[in-house]
Write a structure and sequence with these properties.
By secondary structure, the protein is mainly beta. 14% of the residues lie in helices and 40% in strands. A hairpin with a 4-residue loop joins strand 10 and strand 11.
Length: 186
């Protein structure tokens, strides 16, 4: 009897510890390109937007769902931090701004940030860009990234200094994906 009870208890512990936040929940999807956080880019002083782009061929299956949350990994404190969501746009540039929220001062370093949209956005099925806009007064690391290899649309970077959207791999030859994710729900 004691052996059976211990076996049952061990199985319960194994089952409980195998559950993760990334486990799928029916009616919910996490849109992402990244793997677990490995590091973060060293960004020069100035304004930067780090973004992931989910094109219409990915978003079509979520038509009429709600975008409810944006999550990202923050490795260090930026001087300002704003969550932005854009329409599809054209080519390698986001479209019109759909959502913006200044989260400066609410971030906690070295962990995932969770930003719930006060009013969820209805997914049209068109592409969307999810951006974390940062200002650094000095060169520093802030947003997290995985160890790569980069996925198409997983590493967009806008720099105020050249006013261009380019991928991080185009800018540096480093192959990573930003730790930026979006949660959509039915």
């Amino acid at each position: 009897m004691k052996i059976q009870l211990l076996t049952l208890l061990a199985c319960a512990v194994i089952f409980a510890s195998s559950c993760k936040k990334d486990d799928p929940i029916p009616g919910e999807a996490t849109l992402k390109y990244d793997n677990p956080n490995a590091t973060g880019p060293l960004l020069e002083a100035g304004f930067h937007e780090l973004a992931v782009y989910f094109p219409s061929n990915m978003m079509g299956q979520y038509r009429d769902w709600s975008l409810t949350e944006v999550t990202w990994y923050m490795g260090g404190f930026p001087d300002s931090c704003v969550v932005k969501i854009y329409e599809e746009g054209s080519g390698d540039t986001p479209g019109a701004l759909l959502y913006e929220n200044d989260v400066t001062g609410t971030t906690v370093v070295n962990q995932w940030q969770e930003h719930l949209l006060p009013t969820p956005l209805t997914v049209s099925g068109d592409g969307i860009w999810i951006s974390i806009a940062l200002r650094h007064d000095t060169e520093k690391q802030s947003i997290g990234c995985d160890s790569g290899p980069n996925q198409t649309n997983g590493d967009w970077l806008y720099k105020e200094s050249d006013q261009q959207w380019l991928t991080y791999v185009q800018r540096t030859s480093e192959s990573v994906n930003w730790n930026i994710r979006a949660i959509v729900e039915e």
